[in-house]
Amino acid sequence: MATNTNGRTPPENATLADVAEHVGVSARTVSRVVNNQGGCTAETRDRILAAIDELGYRPNLMARGLSKRRSDTIGLVSIAMLDPFFPEFADGVERAASDLGRTMFLASTGGDRVRQLSALKSMVGHGVEGAIVFPAAHAVGDLVDFAAKEMPIIIVNDDVQGVRISSVSAEIQAGAEMAVNHLLRSGRKRVAALLDRDARNAPRPARRELGYRNALETKGFGPDQHLIIDVDNSLEGGRVGLDEALAQPNPPDALFAYNDLIAIGALQRALDRGISVPDDLAIVGFDDIEMCQAMTPMLTSVRIDRDQLGRVAVDMIRTLVEEGSVPSRRLPVELVVRASAP
Amino acid sequence: MATNTNGRTPPENATLADVAEHVGVSARTVSRVVNNQGGCTAETRDRILAAIDELGYRPNLMARGLSKRRSDTIGLVSIAMLDPFFPEFADGVERAASDLGRTMFLASTGGDRVRQLSALKSMVGHGVEGAIVFPAAHAVGDLVDFAAKEMPIIIVNDDVQGVRISSVSAEIQAGAEMAVNHLLRSGRKRVAALLDRDARNAPRPARRELGYRNALETKGFGPDQHLIIDVDNSLEGGRVGLDEALAQPNPPDALFAYNDLIAIGALQRALDRGISVPDDLAIVGFDDIEMCQAMTPMLTSVRIDRDQLGRVAVDMIRTLVEEGSVPSRRLPVELVVRASAP
DNA sequence: CTGAAAGCGCTTACAG
DNA sequence: CTGAAAGCGCTTACAG
Question: Could you report the per-residue pLDDT of A240-252, keeping only the tens digit for each?
Answer without folding.
Answer: 999 999 999 999 9
